[in-house]
Amino acid sequence: MGLKHTPVKLAIVGGGAAGMFAAAVAAQRKIPAVLIERKARLGSKVLMTANGRCNFAKDISPEDFLKDVECPVGTPQGRSAAKFLQSALRSCPPRKIISFFRSLNVPVRRMADARMFPADGKATTIVHAFGDLLRNSETPVVTNCPVTGIQPQKNGFIVATKNFTLWAENVLLATGGVSYPKLGSVGDGQNFARALGHKIVPYRPGLIGLETADAEITRRAGRRYEDARAKVLSGDGKVLYDYRGEVDCESFGLSGAAVYNSQRFIEHAKLKDYTIEVWLDKQRLQFRNLKPRPVKEAIVTIGGISTDEINPDTMESRLVPGLYFAGEVMDIDGPTGGYNLTMAFATAAKAVASLNS
Ligand SMILES: Cc1cc2nc3c(=O)[nH]c(=O)nc-3n(C[C@H](O)[C@H](O)[C@H](O)COP(=O)(O)OP(=O)(O)OC[C@H]3O[C@@H](n4cnc5c(N)ncnc54)[C@H](O)[C@@H]3O)c2cc1C
Q1: Is residue 257 in contact with ligand 1, taking CB distance under 6 Å?
Q2: Which of 30, 138, 197, 220 is buried most, with the most CB atoms less than 10 Å from its CB?
Q3: Quick one: pLDDT at residue 5?
Q4: What would the DSSP string read from start to end of 9-58?
Q5: If you average pLDDT over every residue of the chain, what do you get?
């Protein structure tokens, strides 16, 4: 019997949130796909989410989701980021993601503020559910295998690794941002895209703590204030952003959801002179121009492959036909509360749905 050399329909590079979801959707749609992951196991970062509990979605409408992602609200920049995600979120809204996990027999729990978790509070349950689906569908998964290059050909792509090359009709880059590099996301996808002519928006930390040596904070290091508040004020004292939520005191300064979301606002608004005001047990504290912790410690990366050159209805490159993107490798980011995983899942679903089986 003569062997015929044929390409795989889809090579998914990166087995994190977006890559696992893409492989799952491909399996359900009977699209032949192979998933390639640099680390020894899939979903290393997903396992870390929400302190190992995995806040995988927020149970709100796509419209509310997109409003929350818009940052700063009402600016052309905020609106264009939300607009880019509109098509993906409409096709794969949080409700669909929640049903997806239920269909994999993952009991889920909805918190009062609509954040969704696996009911047992274990991120491993989510990663195992993906693993089971991929095993049952006999999806080829290659772990411990960094992809080293992507080369467009006349009829598809050559996907290079240290040990083998793979011929794929289409490639989905789902290699994540550049935060927590030990978990595998080191910027490879952005480098591949750059080599193919894509613009990369400079990396900045998103959802990260702010540094202060102020004794009011350092003497409280280790204390969490769940019912707290953070505000961002302009140099002349105008309130620009206001968020009620957790504020934590650390040895380096401030963290917690209210601080993370404020830091995201400061970064997107490109504020140079601002005051951050936190309320801890009715005590008001103000700080000027605090430095964020480094991007490698951030929950998300702001920046990445520019969405200007990506078709939002397909997640396909406008420059290289057959090249797709999903998740944090792109210049997309959301606030805390399940938004970032949802964006990874929804963009992955969008990319795979635009391929014909
Ligand atoms: C501490 C922490 C807590 C978080 N908590 C939450 C939360 O509760 N809810 C939420 O919504 N978001 C949370 N996030 C953010 C969320 O985890 C990310 O936004 C999300 O994982 C992005 O998915 P992704 O698939 O794009 O990237 P990743 O999940 O980072 O996956 C990228 C994958 O690609 C692989 N890879 C990279 N380069 C290569 C290569 N060359 N070849 C092969 N594979 C490669 C990596 O090893 C990695 O597995 C948290 C993040 C952190 C760091």
Answers
A1: no
A2: 220
A3: 84
A4: EEEEE--SHHHHHHHHHHHHTT--EEEE-SSSSS-HHHHHHHHHT---EE
A5: 96
- Cα separation, 344 vs 330, whole angstroms: 10
Name which of 202, 178, 175 is nearest 299 in CA terms. 178
* pTM (two decimals): 0.97
User: At 92, which amino acid appears?
Assistant: C
Cα of 202 to ligand 1 centre, how many Å? Answer: 18
Confidence grade of residue 3 (pLDDT, cut at 50, 70, 90): confident
Report the alpha-carbon distance of residue 143 to residue 305 in Å, rounded.
Answer: 24
* Ligand 1 proximity of 118 Cβ (cutoff 6 Å): no
Intervals of CATH 3.50.50.60 along the chain: 8-204+297-353
CATH class, range 8-204+297-353: alpha beta
Does position 357 have pLDDT exceeding 60, yes or no? no
- The closest-lying atom of ligand 1 relative to the alpha carbon of residue 327 is 26
Q: What is the pLDDT of residues 38-88, one digit of tens each?
A: 999 999 999 999 999 999 999 999 999 999 999 999 999 999 999 999 999
330 Cβ closer than 6 Å to some ligand 1 atom: no
Torsion of CA 271, 272, 273, 277, to 10 degrees: 50
How would you classify residue 8: left for phi > 0, otherwise alpha for psi between -120 and 50, otherwise beta?
beta
Determine if the peptide bond prior to 72 is cis (ω within 30°).
Answer: yes
